[in-house]
Amino acid sequence: MIFLCMGYYNAEKMDARPSAEIVAVMEECQPHIETFYNSGKVLLDAGLETETKNLRRSDGKIMVTDGPFTESKELIGSIFIIEAEDMDEAIQLASTHPTTQVSQGEEFGWRIEIRPVHYFKNDK
User: What is the CATH number of domain 2-116?
Assistant: First the structure.
């Protein structure tokens, strides 16, 4: 099975910290990300910028509006796609990601949402 995992964070809490502190936290992530990648089950891993656009069809035209669109202070900062036998294995694998391994992540509201994917096309 394929699973989409979304890594959330609280932008206000992270933006309030000095950049040197954020750099140090990101450096602490590196050994955990290597463990995560070494599983051989990570199909894609991507960090996201904060800029967002919303596209929707309205009256036969495609409308584009700026985002983000949530009322929450949480933003999606990363996504990754993994392959696992079932949700239990997906949880085990995602739990090796820096989001759950780096202690400072608690202060920044880091969390992962895991969703099974019912359609996945890969032209590799």
Answer: 3.30.70.1060
